[in-house]
Write a structure and sequence with these properties.
This protein is mainly alpha-helical. The protein is built from nine helices and no strands. The N terminus is likely disordered.
């Protein structure tokens, strides 16, 4: 199953030296982002380290599927996400899927763009501090947590997120919209507890 997640690109034939250069120069600079993503998914330090290690082992193993000059970070995030689903999520008691049907068709239309859901960094995170954001984010279902991380924390575009998550762009939009609303509700509760009047 491992090879399936990386089969889109035509295989290259890199020399050992080229593989080493790609790994060190294109993959390793993203290790901190990878760990942060893994931690946000697993909520466990040891599992995060295992997941990142597993991701880098797979990245090296399938390095011939990586095209130099493409987005290495998105490629690595996709491997990590697939490893999480295949290995770690099975161990958890979380439901495997969330039903997004009620808003999906609307978000699949071409006219829909980012303006529908204001950028989380501007609106929902205003006047908030780190712990509240982390707690609220961690309380979300993993599918919602993932789209927030990819878009608002890591800055991936919708088309990149669709590739990483193996879902249509419309699904990315609808999931992100729901995720941001859920997160805003949770942050609003924290804000009220902290005495913010306009929360």
């Amino acid at each position: 199953m491992d090879h399936m997640e990386l089969e889109e690109s035509p295989k290259q034939q890199y020399s050992d030296k080229e593989k080493e250069n790609i790994f060190n120069n294109e993959f390793m600079p993203h290790i901190n982002s990878m760990y942060n993503f893994a931690y946000r998914l697993t909520l466990d330090q040891d599992d995060s380290k295992d997941l990142v290690q597993d991701t880098y082992l797979k990245a090296y193993r399938f390095i011939d599927s990586f095209q130099q000059g493409t987005n290495a970070k998105a490629w690595l995030f996709r491997i990590l996400k697939n490893s999480f689903i295949n290995d770690y999520r099975k161990k958890s008691k979380e439901p495997s899927k969330v039903d997004y049907q009620e808003v999906e068709s609307y978000y699949n239309s071409e006219e829909v763009d980012r303006q529908i859901t204001p950028d989380l960094r501007v609106e929902a995170l205003k006047d908030m501090i780190g712990d509240e954001i982390s707690n609220a984010l961690n309380a979300l279902d993993v599918d919602f947590r993932t789209v927030i991380i990819l878009c608002d924390l890591e800055g991936f575009k919708y088309d990149e997120m669709a590739k990483i998550l193996d879902i249509p762009i419309g699904t990315v939009r609808s999931r992100l919209h729901r995720a941001r609303n859920l997160l805003k509700e949770k942050l609003s509760e924290y804000a009220k507890q902290m005495g913010y009047k306009n929360a």
